[in-house]
Amino acid sequence: MDLDLLSSLAIENETKVVLVIMDGLGGLAGPNGKTSLEAAHTPNLDALARSSICGFHDPLGPGLTPGSGPAHIGLFGYDPFRYLIGRGVLDTAGTPFVFEQGDMASRLNFATLAADGTIADRRAGRIPDEEGKRVTELLAENIKEINGVQVLMQHVKEYRAAAIFRGKKLDGRLCDSDPQQVGHKPLEVAPTEQNPTAEAKEAADLANTFIARAKEILADEQKANFVMMRGFDIYEPLPNFCELYKWRACAVAAYPMYKGVSKLAGMRVIEEGQSTIEEEIELVEREFPNTDFLFLHVKKADSMGEDGNFEGKVGVIEHFDRLLPRLMDLKPDVLCITGDHSTPCRLKSHSWHPVPICISAESVRADACQTFGETSCLTGGLGRIHSTEVMPLLLAHAERLMKYGA
Amino acid sequence: MDLDLLSSLAIENETKVVLVIMDGLGGLAGPNGKTSLEAAHTPNLDALARSSICGFHDPLGPGLTPGSGPAHIGLFGYDPFRYLIGRGVLDTAGTPFVFEQGDMASRLNFATLAADGTIADRRAGRIPDEEGKRVTELLAENIKEINGVQVLMQHVKEYRAAAIFRGKKLDGRLCDSDPQQVGHKPLEVAPTEQNPTAEAKEAADLANTFIARAKEILADEQKANFVMMRGFDIYEPLPNFCELYKWRACAVAAYPMYKGVSKLAGMRVIEEGQSTIEEEIELVEREFPNTDFLFLHVKKADSMGEDGNFEGKVGVIEHFDRLLPRLMDLKPDVLCITGDHSTPCRLKSHSWHPVPICISAESVRADACQTFGETSCLTGGLGRIHSTEVMPLLLAHAERLMKYGA
Asked: N or C: which end of chain A has fewer CB within 10 A?
């Protein structure tokens, strides 16, 4: 899908669209031969499926498993291969930090270094938020620039923070310094390309200098006496979601990463600390009158999948199902329920399996799908579409796309 | 599918994949309303289909009929439009000949020229192998170079051979010299492009000189007194299948062309002269422990289709079905059964119809498909994918692909 073309066809009107992404929604059959979505008692989702058009979307394409970034980027209509966002930028975007174009961001993990120079704890004993904030502040006060490049610090959560380098053209194609195992020495940051650019070499020098200086500053800390860097990436703004599609878009998500990807796309992100689905729904109800496109992210289905907790995933889906009538009471013109990717409990990880999707709108064509599940969606009228085709469909059902050509 | 991207996600592990390509597997309904695959008694394939995910692949896309080269190239994951292999290179690759980059290969058919200069027999009375070898040798001894370009000869089978031109940059976009009908004079080899390159003009001169000299050398032959050239192509190595996907790949095929295309992809090709499916299966059993990806080619389904022999095709499929348990006993982590294209008996030729495919692995999602056939595969969970999407799926089910993006 050519974004410029899509944008050129987009028009403003009064319709409203709600997109619910249940993270990791898709699954594989559990012990009873049903997936979590199928095993869950979901009278409201099933009723919605009967009056909707159902099917699947492929986040990236057959066989390809997406990270959370590409999976959301695709559903927002952006080519996930063209707009790949590194971990450093993605995690930082979920904080109040305000990026400038060209910033190089890196995730920072506070760690414990043993006397012999090996990593004793990759998470510094999972220090709590206040401790993490304090050591982040300590670094911020003592490292304001390196070699003429401004250094900015941002605490993320617990032992996690971010370092942002600003003011010079840099190349973020760098390896992580995290050896991924305790008992090993931290790695030098180095360019990943065989023939690295001068900007990548300079960026690696900056990172290694940063790590050395942080080590000195943190020398007296009991736990967080060291930092490791990962996910280097240069911030480049995405085409603005609100300008592209000519609507006011708002994101409600409990986890920083999903707030981050929405913010990167240019959505208005509700920053309040909602954490339960109820709290999220309350915010949706509050924001609905002031928005045209509302993205609601439900995280826990994925977490349960990653834990291999089949019943837990069933519970999250049933929990959402009980709250679904409140979304329907808002009477959005288009309501789409899907996942960003599959997270089968059996695999305990993201997977490549197509994701069930259900689109409810006046203008959908009827299909035979009677329940919302991986097997029933095979009879859905949508068939199997690519994630980037979801946004054009939502716009179309919202009557927000003009005809192409005469 | 971007091959570089796919390769960057591929990892090594201990899993094993078997891909069975039953040549020309897909068909159209015969007199009893069933296709050969449906009419065949295939208890083992049907049982496999029940525990697998089924569907179709399009070799090139709706309406496009592939030759054997593109049909295999696509299933191996290469873009069949980007990597088009000419007949000269494809047929030569099936022989022990070792290509060098830039070689120009052409198929050579020995023919009988009448006294009036027209073609009397396009296959020189289908001379047997030893006769074909003898006249190929005769040419090899007498034509070692033309205009400073080295000429290499390779016998293929019976009246078929290949001529390879080496040592100069040439352009293989040339027409065939075969007039395709007896009673017609052979054609001049000429560039096919409207504005041919100098390299194409030089290549045409080389070919016409070769034909003229071959005619002199063969003047005393009773049958093979002339040669016709076709399928000019320049050899360019394909991205290496083993390096791309980071596994040891092995091909078992009875026919030279399929050995050739596997060799061009960089697979280890079992050169022994297996010809029955039993003999092929024995080799698969022998090679399985030493390989991660095993490609088994079953030719005869296509041959029967080309002959319009409906019952013959049924017989080949039933024959394979009886041997399928031996493949399953090897317990590959992923077993995929499909065809390279359809060859409906009614059309007696390759066709564009989507090809049934069945993928068996722990991580496949259940579908409603109860038998392996063109009608039942319509209910399969795979839906309709492109041939180039098969390889990413096999890699994914073998847990050989990393997640893309954070």
From this structure: C
